[in-house]
Amino acid sequence: xxxxxxxxxxxxxxxxxxxxxxxxxxxxxxxxxxxxxxxxxxxxxxxxxxxxxxxxxxxxxxxxxxxxxxxxxxxxxxxxxxxxxxxxxxxxxxxxxxxxxxxxxxxxxxxxxxxxxxxxxxxxxxxxxxxxxxxxxxxxxxxxxxxxxxxxxxxxxxxxxxxxxxxxxxxxxxxxxxxxxxxxxxxxxxxxxxxxxxxxxxxxxxxxxxxxxxxxxxxxxxxxxxxxxxxxxxxxxxxx
Length: 240
Ligand code: MN
Hints:
The chain is mainly alpha-helical. It has helices at 3-14, 25-32, 59-84, 91-96, 103-120, 132-142, 145-158, 208-211, 215-222, 228-239, and strands at residues 163-170, 173-180, 195-201. It has a 3-stranded antiparallel beta sheet. Strand 1 and strand 2 form a beta hairpin.
């Protein structure tokens, strides 16, 4: 760096900025993740700030979960697709025959998709009971919102090790289920198939910083931030 450049950069720093922050925010975050332009799947942005779900889900957990874990799944999913020559396949088709795909596609494709649904399932304005069409369907399938909530919480609490609990739409109505690791109900390996409407991540990375071993406290807190508008959107999309 010559003296002139040094002085220029020093001036920028003195003004409270850095060279990097003069780039658009989205570009900085993409570059920081090591994601290169042209990759098929991009880490989605959240609709809210990392601290927006406090006190139910803490800011540090959200930041690490999104910017490290989800970013990692996204990066590795792109790499797995590339090495299998499957860049042109749709996620839906890959999941339908995931038992025939390399493990990297199952684990990282699931990780990419599941977290996408999860972030959207949460909102600082969420919580309460389900309204709209999904509210009616929950009533019909489970005999009441409380009964559904109890079933879903139990599925999340009893999933051994790492995994997810789900509310899914099937031809026979709504069903609660859970999957290990990064599997999901769109995959042919899942015990219960269906279209995911609501997801909770019960990997320890989703709650350990705030709740340590108390997974049930995290599940109880989750209900305060469920985005029922989004669950309704997915329900109506699946109905078509
Ligand atoms: Mn996770």
